[in-house]
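Marked as duplicate of an earlier ticket. Keeping the data here for the record.
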Amino acid sequence: MLDGLAARNGGRAGVATLVAILLLGLGLRLGEAWDGRAPVYDATAYAAIAANLDRGEGFTVGPGATQPSSNYSPGLPLFVAGVYEVTGGVHERTARVVLALLGVLGVLLTYLLGRRLTRCLLFPRYGEGKVDSPVVAGLIAALAVAIYPALLEYQGMLMSEPLAATLLAGAVLSVFWAAAASSGPPGGGSPARWLVPGVLFGALALVRPEYFGVAVLVAVVLFALGARRDWRRALAASAALLAAALVVIAPWTIRNAEALGRFVPISTGGGQVLFAGTYLPSDGNPERVGAEVVERHPELFGPQALQKLRLEQILARLAAHRYPSMETDQALSKMGKEQLWDDLGKEPEFAGFVAKKVWRLWGHGPREVMQEPGWELLHWALLAFGLLGLGVLVWRRRWEAALLATVFVSITALSALLVASPRRVLVMLPLLAACAGVGAVWAWQAMRERRQPQGAGAAAEG
């Protein structure tokens, strides 16, 4: 068994390198989790909700909250509250350590993704007894995720991105596993295998609600890919994936119906991010929305509103003024849709607005540490080699490229419509790193082939 494990992972050298990367990722994450970091606002809210759940006070941020607790996605605080239940009390450091361990699992899943994507391209080995190309690609991908600073810093507070990144990596890898039963594009094998990615996508949606829409698109793409072989089995596979995701989400939707008195699938924050994301005066920067709203509506705000009020409070006051009879999130959703329709009529201005938002999303990682030259270079290397790797998969006509592109394009489009936060890229980091591993190995292999003397390959075959 151990010999087989070593053979699949580049022999002793490959396994040793992987273990070293995992230990490095573990050490960095445990260090952050143990020491902790000054939490950002969302992390403070998640921590408060989890603590209140453990105390039996319900899903609430508590007194003094600046927005409804239903605006927050439930996945992370529910998970942390579960940790508190198991460990016997509110111990945030323990929760951070557990999340750090899941973060290391994300590093391992990234390795498996990079290895899987490169193996399907059938790169040649680097020589007898040496680590093969798929393992090298997986190791490159795993190392990038293991040391990516912004992801590490969020392990020092209760933030959803590290957990979501692990769930997304697991969901995509499980799609590859389920599709392996058909020895080709998805659509074969037992539909029961597709329940696993469905459950993971459902859990991911509870942590990051926008990924339920991604799961729907993934199911559509999987059906389209598999329908060419057997549309009935492809439909069964896609339906199983979506059904499993819905089963995971349904209990919280039912809870929302009882607690809020209306249909809310996961959270109520969509209206706020739609309005903020389509507010042209902000020039694509969500941090400027509050100031621009206050400046344009002086009748609603005092002279020091920006020092006293957070963005959600400013938008809630504006929503109450425009539509006093509606719930805040419903009013902001209505205002956001009206605003988007107006924006579309200003084509040149809106196109530039969207371009700035896409640049804000991908141009650099979140947190100030990603502005440092070395880490900025790492980010750009991942983008460059990631695009190259995805391009290679498309060029080789691999169906995996369609799945990965669905995730990248849908989240980019959603960010262009809503708030373009670089934090969204952190969730996709394992997929980006896996593609970068493919790109780096392909580029190295291309250089090796170009350096070989003409006729060397024919001589070797003879």
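See parent ticket for discussion. Residues 38 and 410 are 32 Å apart (CA to CA).
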